[in-house]
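Title: Comparing notes on inverse folding

I've been comparing how different people in this forum approach sequence design from structure. To keep things fair, I'm posting one structure and asking everyone to reply with a full sequence. Here's the target:
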């Protein structure tokens, strides 16, 4: 199913290697925005998402305990959202301050918690992975996510790691809401008594639980055992529960996967679980209003064999445990084949409604199992039921979270690998399900190329997990793609003088994760597979690659870690160019040439080698071909520039389609311009790395305003005069203004492209935020 780890880690690694410290905060220090330019600021304060709808893994749904109209969603790599009932849309709440240059990894939200006594307060634990051992952050909002303050944590967070839909791992004490507890993956339980500003490890809970290695699930959930409605600033809750993953418990020598504290977390004792679930994970625990606990147990997946928690099969059990049955365990459901995960309850006593998410694909007739008599009888509520706006099968997969609306038990939602699905008539014998993803855009664009004015589409979007698409309408989900199923698009280009011809590469995730490539001669209406792949293309499914189309049937493809090849027959055959092989490549840190065709004279093709990594001894270099990308030579007059070596994802090259030989390059630190096909280069602007952010990483060109002195509007993402942002120039780079503002930072941009139809329209993708454009 849809897992973005392999997609975003290279960009995150590049940021780490570049010294991006996530805003430069110190442990316990408040995160702030940088200095503001003296020039005009905020040229574009209105941004709109291009329509896809979901597209990524929503890992949790959290209702406010006392305000049923308040609902949040967290995602693995795309930040968090708040539901707005008035507009029936999700509002992204993690686009602003604290998610700027180098901070995209904090769009991985592992846990979200709300203060039961104050429906304005929101807490989020963020970070992409514990495997890199970099500090996570807690973000705190006092206005439902409109603005945030963040604090660095003394431990790492795994928002995009395995089992990321377990929990919630973060909990607020209802009786004393300045007290927070968090169950970490690698270092036990942590506690804060000052509303998350500072943290201390709970030493009474297995202090030896400081473990190393990948795929650690750790402490899965924290539950304060108090009623939801309490008086603020009362005595701290004394009874606290914690669930622990089975592999973690075994590695730490713990006696159970369930623990209880009766003194506010000072000491902990194991609680025996039924023998048939000893050694099982507990993905979710929910507490009913009468104090009973409902727990889903699932056999721990064989992570050594590459199995993932999300989507894992059985055996699985559902148990009830708690006050009303005198502390005894009551088995409610068992399945030998499928996985139980998502769990929600409504009501109390014999009419309690239980909604249970079934994950894995061992039985396609189970998706949401429902009981209306506290687990005595069960029936299927979604599989084979009516679906509107989405195919039934597209709601399945990774159903690790379920939520019954506290104000309406007939309204049930669940997460899945592509977003959220819901029903409003759960009590019907045939409930109708539909997507709940309006304005929730969590896709990872890997390559974006805009079309010339008048083309039959706006741009070609190559994205992880959803494939390649020619977008004709920004407000409508696209339909013109070569693989209309679970696939990834890696690179694409078009013939500028004939934009109906498109070439694209990608990965068929559904069918063995095989590398595929296609061409279209009718603007994406139909597609034809390449008959062959160039040398190196099949060896890696990495998105670190590029394609340049010079004219119909003619293209150059630069695969990962490989010498580019050209084809004159739409991929029927390939010939290697004479570009030099890389002298150094690093496993898991890909390197590739960026190739681009001159749009005025397509016999010219440019190739940029970024040097591969910041530690490389090789400077960035630009090569030029005068025969359509068959043979290349190093661009002349080079030595004065010595472009800095940097990671592929921190660099860019773009050509001006309105002038022959007009090239712009960012090397991660600075912006360079050539107007004579690379024979001479001039450094433009005072972009420079500062305050932990790169100087210039992305450059894009778009339509110029009427009467401008330069034929394109220029957009650069980077750091200018110490301020990170997106900057615009309409006079060839002589002067710059900041184009975005602090409220629209999006965790920086993996790709950026300007529109050739509308002046001032810029497309960015943010950190797994789909494609967003300026108005």
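Reply #1:
Here's my take.
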């Amino acid at each position: 199913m849809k897992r973005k780890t392999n997609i975003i880690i290279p960009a995150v690694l590049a940021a780490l290697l570049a010294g991006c410290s996530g805003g430069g905060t110190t442990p316990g220090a408040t995160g702030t925005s940088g200095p503001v330019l003296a020039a005009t600021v905020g040229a574009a304060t209105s941004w709109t998402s291009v329509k896809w709808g979901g597209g990524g893994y929503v890992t949790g749904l959290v209702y406010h305990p006392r305000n049923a109209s308040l609902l949040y969603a967290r995602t693995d790599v795309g930040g968090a959202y708040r539901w707005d009932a008035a507009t029936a849309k999700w509002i992204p709440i993690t686009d602003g301050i604290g998610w700027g240059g180098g901070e995209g990894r904090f769009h991985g939200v592992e846990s979200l918690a709300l203060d039961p006594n104050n429906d304005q307060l929101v807490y989020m634990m963020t970070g992409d992975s514990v495997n890199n051992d970099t500090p996570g952050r807690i973000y705190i909002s006092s206005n439902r996510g409109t603005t945030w303050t963040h604090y660095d944590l003394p431990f790492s967070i795994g928002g995009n790691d395995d089992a990321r839909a377990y929990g919630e791992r973060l909990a607020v004490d209802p009786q004393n809401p300045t007290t927070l507890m968090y169950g970490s993956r690698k270092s036990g339980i942590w506690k804060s008594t000052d509303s998350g500003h500072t943290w201390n490890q709970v030493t009474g809970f297995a202090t030896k639980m400081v473990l190393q290695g990948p795929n650690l699930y750790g402490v899965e959930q924290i539950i304060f055992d108090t009623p939801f409605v309490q008086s603020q600033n009362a005595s701290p809750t004394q009874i606290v529960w914690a669930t622990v993953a089975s592999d973690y418990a075994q590695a730490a020598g713990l006696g159970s996967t369930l623990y209880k504290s009766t003194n506010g977390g000072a000491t902990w004792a194991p609680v025996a679980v039924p023998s048939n679930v000893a050694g099982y994970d507990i993905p979710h625990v929910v507490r009913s209003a009468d104090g009973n606990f409902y727990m889903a147990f699932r056999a721990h997946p064989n992570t050594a064999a590459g199995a993932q928690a999300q989507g894992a099969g059985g055996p699985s059990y559902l148990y009830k445990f708690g006050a009303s049955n005198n502390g005894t365990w009551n088995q409610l459901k068992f399945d030998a084949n499928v996985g139980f995960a998502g769990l929600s309850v409504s009501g109390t006593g014999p009419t309690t409604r239980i909604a249970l998410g079934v994950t894995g694909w061992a039985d396609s007739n189970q998706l949401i199992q429902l009981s209306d008599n506290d687990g005595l009888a069960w029936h299927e509520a979604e599989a084979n039921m009516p679906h509107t706006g989405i195919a039934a099968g597209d709601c399945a997969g990774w159903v690790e979270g379920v939520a019954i609306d506290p104000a309406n038990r007939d309204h049930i939602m669940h997460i899945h690998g592509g977003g959220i699905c819901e029903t409003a008539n759960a009590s019907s014998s045939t409930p109708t399900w539909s997507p709940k993803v309006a304005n929730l855009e969590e896709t990872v664009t890997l390559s974006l190329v805009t079309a010339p004015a008048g083309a039959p589409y706006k741009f070609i979007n190559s994205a992880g997990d959803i494939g390649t698409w020619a977008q004709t309408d920004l407000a409508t989900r696209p339909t013109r793609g070569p693989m209309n199923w679970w696939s990834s698009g890696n690179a694409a280009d078009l013939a500028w003088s004939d934009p109906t011809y498109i070439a694209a590469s990608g990965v068929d995730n559904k069918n063995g994760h095989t590398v595929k490539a296609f061409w279209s001669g009718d603007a994406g209406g139909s597609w034809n597979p390449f008959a062959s792949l160039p040398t190196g293309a099949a060896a890696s499914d990495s998105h670190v690659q590029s394609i340049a189309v010079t004219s119909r049937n003619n293209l150059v493809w630069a695969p990962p870690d490989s010498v580019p090849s050209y084809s004159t027959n739409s991929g029927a055959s390939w010939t290697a160019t004479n570009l030099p092989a890389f002298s150094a490549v690093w496993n898991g840190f890909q390197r590739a040439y960026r190739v681009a065709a001159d749009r005025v004279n397509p016999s010219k093709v440019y190739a940029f080698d970024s040097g591969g990594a910041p530690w490389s001894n090789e400077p960035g270099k630009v090569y030029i071909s005068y025969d359509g990308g068959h043979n290349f030579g190093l661009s002349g007059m080079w030595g004065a520039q010595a472009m800095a070596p940097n990671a592929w994802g921190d660099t860019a090259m773009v050509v001006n389609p309105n002038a022959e030989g007009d090239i712009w390059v960012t090397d991660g630190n600075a912006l360079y311009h050539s107007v004579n096909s690379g024979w001479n280069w001039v450094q433009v602007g005072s972009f420079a790395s500062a305050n932990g952010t790169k100087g210039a990483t992305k450059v894009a060109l778009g339509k110029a305003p009427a009467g401008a002195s330069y034929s394109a509007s220029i957009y650069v993402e980077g750091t200018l005069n110490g301020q990170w942002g997106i900057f615009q120039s309409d006079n060839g780079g002589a002067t710059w203004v900041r184009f975005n503002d602090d409220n629209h930072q999006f965790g920086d941009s993996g790709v950026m492209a300007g529109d050739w139809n509308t002046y001032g329209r810029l497309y960015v993708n943010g950190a797994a935020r789909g494609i967003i454009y300026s108005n």
